Amino acid sequence: MQRRQFLQASLLASTGLHLTDAELLKTAVLPDPKPDKLPRWRGFNLLEKFVAGTTGPEPSGPYEERDFEWIANWGFNFVRLPMSYHCWSTPNPAQWTQINERVMKEVDEAVDFGKKYGIHVNLNLHRIPGYCVNPPAEPLNLWTDERALEAAVFHWKYLAERYKGRPNREVSFDLINEPNTDEANYVRVITALVEGIRSVDPDRLIIADGLQYGNQPVFKLANLKIGQSTRGYLPMNVSHYKAEWVPMLKDAPEPTWPANWMKMTWDRSTLQKNTIEPWKKLQRQGVGIHVGEWGCYNKTPHDVALRYMEDHLKLWKSAGWGWALWNFRGAFGILNSERTDVTYKDFQGMQLDEKMLNLLRRY
Length: 363
Prior knowledge:
By secondary structure, the protein is of the alpha/beta class. The protein is 36% helix and 16% strand.
């Protein structure tokens, strides 16, 4: 057994998990993705560049190599890096084309970690010039202001030049996180970003999030030969119970699974109808599908969260789609999630949710 497989087996044994030699070897090889058929990548979102620091235009820090090692050794092969351009640039439109090279080297390092540990790295602009799903609002509007669109194209062309030559099995681009606009504006903006990237790196694998915060497939993008990314947060009263940033759920009752939401009973068949079938229709038009974010906030009862998550996982496995849990370390993740109803296992200084890890590894 090679060193990589030995380390995997040792780590799994320490958490009470086991893989056969054949399964260990399979995790070490990254597939070659195609926009019309994305691999069933499985992994996590890593948040080191999710927002700039609160004391100024500084990021929260470099990515952690140990995260990549643990993710790989547990048998996963994908990380999505939702990033704010504020980490390496500035919110001032007059300076949108300035780049902090030191910060970008930390992103380079994450891509190198992915290559080292056999993990595909998906770069996403969670905050792009002119738009972010989270506050604060951008000074200009990406969907209506050409200056914002020009800056957005600039940043993606910059990234395309930086990672030109990296094979698609190692790195891909996810253009805009969870857009909220009309279809015509979205198609226009995505087309401009794709054209900008391909002017630098014609063969780069590109993925676009669906509309309505990632939940709605966009059929008018199918001719661009790019993949699309969906979400796994419905119904929201289960996935985001007591989430402080969702005011509409402030007084929601404690969730169950199956659940009641928007005057409808939600179970696996409801998920199939509302979150799988529309995307399967898009898939039949030659568009590869991946689930870029999903999970349950730590206020959702753990047993409810696990049942809810398992139904999603079963559906995605049946569809042949991969997924990336939000997040790895933190309130949605398997490490340090701070749930009050979980007996954690100490794992190298982290609090590990073994039940959730076991569930994810089965699918």
